[in-house]
Sequence to fold (215 residues):
Amino acid sequence: MSPRSHEDGRTERGGAPLVDRHDEGDNDRKERRSRAREPFDKTQDPHAHLQAFETQMYISGGNDQLSCKLFPGTLRGVAMHWITTLPARSIRSFNDLAGSFVSQFAANKVKRLEVVDLFDIKQAKGESLKSYLARFNNITVCVDDPDQKFFVKAFQKGLRADQFSDALALRRSSSMEEIRARARKHVEAEEDQVEQLEVECLPNHKESKPRVQGA
Fold:
């Protein structure tokens, strides 16, 4: 029979893997403010989960001992089972716990992109400027080396030939923030044009002609 596990990492058969070194003090209040939003169940990126947890602990003023106590509560399923199998008193600091966690679930790490990968992103036929800009911005978040100069070059290279691409060619932008600011007017004009076309395509939208009165 497998040992029954608890949320704090204890098992019925063995002791807790965390070494208890301090009194809790006011940790209960901090604990309530430091709950992770999404439990880790092995399907997510361990680095992203760990970063989110550490950010919450920093904001709430948590310490190393409290981090060790709360982190197991952010795990579910296979990940929770993993932490219950750690040898008793084998974790002496949160760095120990974080290192073991990342190493165990390293296969789930999201692949980071290189700047050169951005040059493969193209604005599709019929895709709006707003959609292309949003898609490009979302992908840049995954790039390890956020160089604005290359971001701008890759974005312009992927644009279809139109008024906005011509405007960027005439006056270069130095950052994606500047491109987003310059794109606003073009996006608004593009959306107005789409709305106008939709109105003109309505079945009841016909130009009225004056009726000629008989003599």
